[in-house]
Design brief:
39 strands; alpha/beta; 14 helices; eight-stranded mixed sheet; Rossmann fold; 5 domains
């Protein structure tokens, strides 16, 4: 009705006339003259006609006088009613041709004027919902927002319309603890349940709790939450990317809920899809929620290092001390060893102070328990009495499967250790076989190679400039093992300033990726001087520590820190939704590679493959978009010509998490209403809303307001009505 008067009018306003009083009298006389003129005509209805003309002209006079209704600042008005409408996707579920959201808005229309409407899902917005598409429901957050926005005011009523499928955390509380968690509202709360429980039984895997990541070789738990018919027994199966891991049977409790705990030990770092499922049953109303997948990232808790040294030395001592003091390193070190010649000399074990070197067990049974193997000035022949090539081949397989290997120089390393014709030579970043000139004894200061400026191993300071300056300040080294240059695919990080091989500076420090693993060759046994001499100048030994720490981080790099990395835009994607796969390509020095052509496949669980391709931009990044069509774990495998390969994994689910549970939670809504005591009430489907109200609630309006009554539609209606009626009477009786 307020529209007819140009807007809502408060009872606490005053009427003002804009027209000067001097004009009102002439206007009134004009009305009287017009009325007298209409009486001149003879006829049975001339008095009715005169009255109609008078009322029409009087209405026009009022309009000309421009009446204004003024409402002053600080006036009090009745308290408002706040309505919260759930806009989550579960409100879009239809029953008998009407969605829950539409039913909620019909109920809102019955509340009348003075209503502030808000829609809420994961956040709250003013106004009614434009669609039922929010990804979640946070009832507690919506109530807190109302308490904050109307702080210090009195509300006549607060009405909450929802199906009760709350994902904000309130539902996990019982009635007692819920009372302490819900916010204090500025008005009574009426909870209106929208939607009725679905018929049939719905068994579902509603959640998997993992913590988000796990540690390599350390047991971790996946706890699956299963809900359904109370007392029902179900087999619950755990799979990793389609491969069966474990199956357990569980019985749902009196509330129709059970938690199933699986304990697994990851044996590789990276991202893996774990899926928990229950069998589909004929009576299950929503079989799409019978499985739940989650991506778990496996990381290293500690880096397990095996350090094998041919003899004690300063270099061995400094590196061993660094590794022992690093809390992230689990070190196993051998550096005073018995050779098989010691046993052949006839000495008994009690007469030898040297420990027995368990080389066979280390390089067969226990090799896979390490992340990094360091040969530091170690010649294998005096120690590997049985099957030396077989043991070295085990190290090669260890590297190709993802391990790391480091060889440090000295008089028992590289060519001096007779590694040129062994399997180890095939994984080193430098070529061996230099002949008689296996070493150079002249002191030298290595220089950064082109690939060493940005590589994480040689970035020993924050910026490129500071890192280069730090390397220039380090002392000279005492010579190095010679080599024949880099193998294909390797990168030099430090070079000799004046010794060359095949026309190029001889590598002093070089790195290489071999299969899934990495190798590093340091052609000197004097890196300890970077610690000892730098500390003597008063600058500490940070360069030495940062060098070896950076080397370890690079050697045991996770899949996301390789030269070629594939990254999905989401760990879990809904079936039929598009997603992006970002590929990053870097060279051996970790510089971006623009223009690299990317090709590969996305393999679905059913064996189907989708080809993807792209070209990297100036930042070495290529992005491909795909739309998965099959549920389950998808593995991405990409290659970039000679730049390497990358793999990643993501999960495709058939259900929307918001629709994993679709039956309204009447029990929770009742607990929520009870948490407010006498200030709370619940209305179930089929009941009239009839909200709780506080009739004493009022609010103070801190603003002035003016409504021009001359523009009231009702005035135009009155004037038109009486003028039209007078004209009709006049024409009816022969007037003009």
């Amino acid at each position: 009705m307020s529209w007819w008067f140009g807007g809502p009018l408060s009872e606490q306003g005053e009427l003002f006339w804009s027209l000067s009083p001097g004009w009102i009298l002439p206007a009134a006389l004009s009305v009287l003259i017009a009325a007298a003129w209409s009486l001149r005509r003879e006829g049975p209805l001339r008095l009715v006609e005169a009255a109609c003309w008078s009322l029409a002209l009087l209405t026009a006079l009022i309009g000309v006088a421009d009446p204004v209704w003024h409402e002053a600042e600080g006036r009090t008005e009745p308290g408002r009613t706040v309505v919260l409408v759930d806009s989550s996707r579960s409100m879009g579920i239809e029953a008998q041709g009407l969605s829950r959201g539409e039913a909620a808005m019909r109920a809102v229309s019955s509340l009348g004027p003075g209503v502030d409407i808000y829609s809420f899902g994961t956040t709250i917005k003013p106004g009614p919902p434009s669609a039922w598409d929010d990804a979640g429901t946070d009832i507690g957050g919506a109530l807190e927002a109302v308490a904050d926005r109307y702080l210090g005011q009195q509300l006549r009523s607060v009405v909450l319309l929802t199906d009760g499928i709350d994902r904000g955390g309130l539902r996990t509380d019982d009635a007692g603890s819920l009372s302490s968690r819900v916010p204090s509202l500025p008005g009574p709360l009426t909870v209106v349940q929208v939607g009725e429980a679905l018929g049939g039984v719905d068994h579902a895997v509603t959640d998997i709790r993992t913590g988000g990541f796990a540690f390599l070789r350390t047991p971790f738990a996946l706890t699956a939450v299963v809900e359904g018919q109370p007392g029902h027994e179900l087999p619950v199966t755990l799979r990793r990317e389609g491969r069966l891991v474990d199956t357990q049977r569980t019985t749902l409790d009196g509330d129709g809920r059970a938690e199933v705990r699986f304990e697994v030990i990851p044996n590789a770092v990276g991202r893996f899809v774990w899926e928990v499922s229950i069998p589909d049953e004929v009576a299950d109303t929503i079989p799409g929620n019978n499985s739940h997948a989650v991506v778990v990232r496996v990381v290293r808790d500690r880096t397990r290092v095996l350090q094998v040294c041919g003899s004690p030395s300063y270099d061995q001592k400094f590196l061993r001390l660094f590794l022992k003091e690093d809390p992230s390193v689990d070190l196993v070190s051998f550096f005073i060893l018995r050779t098989h010649d010691d046993f052949a000399a006839g000495w008994s074990p009690q007469e030898l102070s040297l420990i027995a070197f368990p080389y066979e067990r280390l390089f067969t049974e226990q090799l896979e328990t390490f992340d990094v193997v360091i040969f530091q000035n170690f010649d294998f022949k005096p120690y590997f009495e049985r099957d030396p090539n077989g043991l070295l081949s085990n190290i090669v397989r260890f590297v190709r499967d993802g391990g790391a290997f480091v060889m440090v120089g000295g008089d028992r390393s590289f060519d001096l250790g007779e590694y040129a014709d062994t399997p180890i030579a095939g994984i080193l970043p430098v070529r061996l076989g230099v002949g008689a000139t296996a070493v150079t004894d002249a002191p030298f200061k290595p220089s950064l190679a082109e690939g060493g400026h940005q590589h994480p191993v040689t970035r020993i300071a924050g910026s490129l400039e500071d890192s280069a300056l730090a390397w220039s300040r380090l002392p000279e080294l005492d010579g190095m093992n010679r080599n024949r240059g880099l193998v294909e695919g390797a990168a030099a990080l430090l070079e000799h300033p004046n010794v060359t091989t095949e026309g190029r500076p001889m590598p002093v420090l070089s790195v290489r990726e071999v299969g899934e693993g990495r190798t590093m060759a340091l052609m000197t046994d004097a890196s300890w001087r970077w610690s000892f001499s730098e500390a003597g100048t008063g600058r500490g030994n940070q360069s030495y520590l940062r060098f070896w720490k950076g080397a370890l981080r690079w050697l045991v790099a996770d899949p996301d820190d390789r030269r070629m990395v594939a990254q999905p835009s989401a760990d879990n994607v809904l079936l039929g939704e598009s997603m992006r796969i970002k590929t990053v390509v870097r060279d051996a020095g970790f510089n971006p590679v623009p223009g690299a052509r990317i090709t590969g496949m996305v393999a679905a669980p059913d064996g189907a493959e989708v080809a993807i391709e792209g070209v990297t931009d100036e930042m070495g990044v290529a992005v491909s978009t795909i739309t998965p069509q099959v549920q389950g774990a998808h593995r991405v495998r990409l290659v970039s010509e000679d730049r390497g390969a990358a793999e990643t994994v993501f999960s495709v689910v058939t259900r929307d998490p918001e629709l994993a549970e679709v039956s309204p939670d009447e029990a929770f809504l009742k607990r929520l209403a009870q948490a407010y005591g006498a200030q709370g009430a619940i209305r179930l489907p089929g009941e009239a809303i009839n909200p709780l109200v506080d009739d004493s609630a009022e609010r103070v309006v801190d603003e002035q307001r003016t409504v021009a009554l001359s523009s009231m539609p009702v005035m135009a209606l009155i004037m038109g009505l009486f003028a039209g009626l007078a004209w009709w009477i006049r024409r009816r009786h022969g007037g003009r």
